[in-house]
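Q: Can I see a sequence and its folded structure?
A: Here is a first one.
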Amino acid sequence: MSLADPEAQARDVVVCLAAGSSQLPILRRLSTLNVDIMAVDMQSDAPGLALAHEYVACSTHDVDCVLRELSGMLRGRKIAGVVCGSFGPPTVTAATVCERWGLPGVPLESARIILDKHRFVEACSHFGLHSPSHWRLEDPLLADWDSFSYPLVLKPTHTTAGKAGVYLASTAASARALISTVSANSATGFVEVEEFIDGTDVMLVGFVDEGVFIPLALVDELNRFGEGGVLVGEGLSVPSRFEGTKVSEHIFDAAQTVARGLSVTRSPFVLSTRVSSSGQVYPIELHTQLGGDFLFEGLLEECASIDLTGIILMAMVGLPAEIPRVRIAAARTLRGADGNWRVCADAVAADGGSDNG
């Protein structure tokens, strides 16, 4: 459905997967570029559609619908890029669209690996990186919990919502008590069991352009396991305690290795790692969407000296972008009494907690 002036039809198209309130920062920046925004969302009243030129009425999870509608609407027009603003299956949809129209991005098989926590950690091990001992349980209710060494981290193999369903089991009895809840939060029902690594959670934020990983910011995740073993995410903190250290170099090297190993050519690239108390770096998961966790749209938007989201979006649509030195002001995110995240400047970073999430 066209939402704009016919002259927009002459411009290159950017496909934006999702147009909800959390995608508004992305769409606002795209609207400043000389491109035609084709927004995909199943909600016809999604607020981001006000910034789009054309509307694709599909779920971002429905690959067949997206391909069918895009094929009919594009009519030979050029796609400059695909931007995914939503976590999970939409990243596979983005990879499929890139593959269908021959665009640089994340290869489809790599996108599927990234979405699966077990396969991603396996891939990192194959690339020669450190990996925690881990097991996939396809029928977790039948697991022999007495055969494991504790503590263990239990998590959904395919997470349905953020950190939901991630727990620390200190005994076989606690694992048995928790497993149904963990499995219920997995899109497949499969559960990932991981060796617990004492340490800190650190994210390296950057993007890949022409196959080269470009780092932008190092961020500490403030996580802990609370009552009943449940994972509690208490926000993000910058600058990372590892900024400028050998550990930061190891995290950067790991990101380069993962990007090459998965043959990523163009994408946002947020690598979550576990840094052990001895300084060993363990890649845990990778996000290739732009947004989520109040990272880009909150912490980095307020604390970075340049518009990091804008820089990444320019790369995503094939525009050259000069990246000056990035300065990050000290801050952290906090969840208010209303449940919404906010940025608290000049805060002292809290303890890094105990998450393998």
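Q: Show me another, different protein.
A: A second, unrelated one:
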Amino acid sequence: MRKDNRIGSGSKGPDDVELSVMPDEKSGQRSEARGVSLFKRRDVAESKSTMDLATGREIFANPLPSIFLNPIRVWESLGPVTLDAEQLAQKGLFIEASDHPAAVGFDILRTRLLHGLAEKGWRRIAVTSPTHGCGKSFVAINLALSLARRPASRTALIDLDLRHPEIATTLGIEENRALGEFLSGDQPLESIFHRFGRTLALGLNGTAIERASETLHDPDTTSALTALVDQLEPEVVIYDLPPALVSDDVLAIGPSVDAVLLVTDGTKSTPEEIRAVERMLEGRIPLLGVVLNRAQDFNAGRYRYAKK
């Protein structure tokens, strides 16, 4: 496997992170947004109305023209959530800056990722792994938190592992909203998404979807994810996806992502599995890099949560 650059956390624990940046290219067209939000980019008002899940009231019956779209207003419309920094730190998730080797490693990964995205003009990253248990959600969350620690930044983290959504549980958030309602266009972004602080939007999911692949293939999903980018204007969007070798979900979401970040487990992922993912993505979605998680699993019990 070709490697151009490598970064490591310098940690002697299971949080070791390495990134290999792949200079592949991707071209494609973005589909037309079709949300029903007040903040939708449109020049013509739409008569369709939407019911707010929380209040049951009719909302946003007539979207504003695109000239009035203000990403700051959109971010402010998202319901705020609080996260327990101490509790998450015990899981190896870092809301605040830390000199912990793992936190430093993710900050390095953040900076290298931003450089790679800037070179390509990309911002939509799918995080996946070859198989289950590699810690992809752990990496996706920590990377999003690290990106969100930058002042005046905008990062979006979306749980698109539709069969087994777990980001909300990992963050300690009781989620009863269904992300599928947003993907289908039945509910606007501001009825489903949360906001942590002023820099992190969270698309969480409290309801598993059995027909996950078909949902990701649906043009409505492509339109919803395009509307998300249009309305929030994030610098980076991170989609947490299922393992690449267990379904076609990663390929199904291809039109809505710019590149893939592959998370491997230093204690279990094999070269054959990594090559299989590379072959699957070749000519379809660029492979931005490879993250090596748990390169030195000296404290396996402590990080058992990341093996789920």
